[in-house]
Write a structure and sequence with these properties.
Layout lengths: L5 E6 L11 H17 L19 E4 L15 E2 L11 E6 L3 H10 L1
Antiparallel strand pairs: 1-4, 2-3, 2-4
Helix pairs in contact: 1-2
Length: 110
């Protein structure tokens, strides 16, 4: 069966003093999170139960330290449902089966 597969990888710098995103960006991230969580119910794994199974139902974020001197390893991925205003991720990786709603939410941001 064919389908649409989206991969979105975004890097969002944090405030150097507070280690958090500003309130305007926080609102935009919350909008994307809500859209992803709502839309994730329509995605499904590729080749479920088979050796070549791919989990295309996930949306994750993590704090990234690649731009620091010296670079440090990133934190472990967390499900996007765990994002809160205090999470302060720098990198957000989204893997979904079909993300039309998310794409529309992202277009509104930019």
């Amino acid at each position: 069966m064919s389908g649409l597969r989206f991969r979105i990888d975004l890097f969002v710098p944090l405030d150097s003093k507070t280690e958090k995103v500003d309130s305007v960006l926080q609102t935009k991230i919350d909008t994307i999170k809500t859209s992803i969580l709502d839309f994730r119910q329509y995605s499904q794994k590729i080749n479920p139960g088979k050796e070549a199974e791919e989990d295309t139902t996930k949306a994750v974020f993590h704090k990234c330290y690649h731009d620091e001197t010296p670079p440090k390893p990133c934190e472990a991925d967390k499900d996007i449902s765990e994002w809160t205003k205090d999470s302060g991720p720098v990198a957000v990786k989204i893997e979904e089966g079909t993300l039309k709603k998310v794409w529309n939410a992202i277009k509104k941001i930019f």
